[in-house]
Amino acid sequence: MITTVIFDLDDTLYDEIDYCRSGFHAVSRVLARLSNLSCTADAFACLWKQFTAGNHTATFNAALDELGLACDDALIAQLVEVYRSHRPELTLPSESRLALDTLKKSYRLALLTDGYLPAQRLKVLALGLESDFEAIVYTEELGRTCWKPSPVGFETLIKQLNVTPETMAYVADNETKDFVAPNALGMLTIQLRRPARLHTGAAPRQGAAPRLRLDKIAELPTLLDRY
Q1: Domain boundaries 17-85, corresponding CATH code
Q2: Do the beta carbons of residue 9 and residue 124 sit within 8 Å?
Q3: pLDDT (tens digit per residue) in 104-151
Q4: pLDDT, tens digit, for every residue of 159-169?
């Protein structure tokens, strides 16, 4: 019987691309101040074009080249810090809010998220999620080696909540890393496939695929009731 539901954050409870858009707006405002750009729209347009074209690793470098701005390691580091530390403009989707409110009536809820601090904390704050979860584990606080697919974050929640893996469900999006550890621990794993999700790769190895898949978070309460 499932008594505890653990959620991933990015591309599970909201669309991560909304965070990316918010971050690029913050970076574009800094670029406009540092250069002679007439407005932030020019910088944002270049950043967004690079990112949506699939350049997710050197977005800033490519955008600066396109804008004709001098690029060095110090500037890139500054822009990365702006992106990660900005206060994001995010709204929790209504279907996620309804699902959480419904599930709280019957299940204990927890959150497990990878990513850089303070970015993940600021996302949770912007989405108004802190009060929804009995426990929140930011794997960055445990050490970079504890990011998924490491089991450490999941084991931490098991101890904090004093539950067994067989009574836990984990809901996440990324088939390449999210489900390896909870599968091995014996949790029920559920992939939520949001249409705008950034990571769409298939399971890279045996044991990485989720047991169940959903296209809408609204379907989650009914699915869990079966277990």
Answers
A1: 1.10.150
A2: yes
A3: 999 999 999 999 999 999 999 999 999 999 999 999 999 999 999 999
A4: 999 999 999 99
Report the alpha-carbon distance of residue 59 to residue 175 in Å, rounded: 24
| The amino acid at 187 | M
Question: In terms of DSSP bridges, do strands 188-192 and 212-214 run parallel, antiparallel, or are they unpaired?
Answer: parallel
Residue 30: CB atoms within 10 Å: 18
Cα–Cα distance for residue pair 216/199, rounded to 1 Å: 16
| Separation of CA 179 from chain center | 14
- Residue 201: is its pLDDT beyond 80? no
The domain locations on the chain are: 4-15+90-225, 17-85
**The domain 4-15+90-225: what is its CATH number?**
3.40.50.1000
Cβ atoms within 10 Å, residue 213: 12
Tens digit of each residue's pLDDT (9 = 90 or more) over 187-196: 999 999 999 9
DSSP string, 185-207: HT-EEEEE--TT-S--PPP-STT
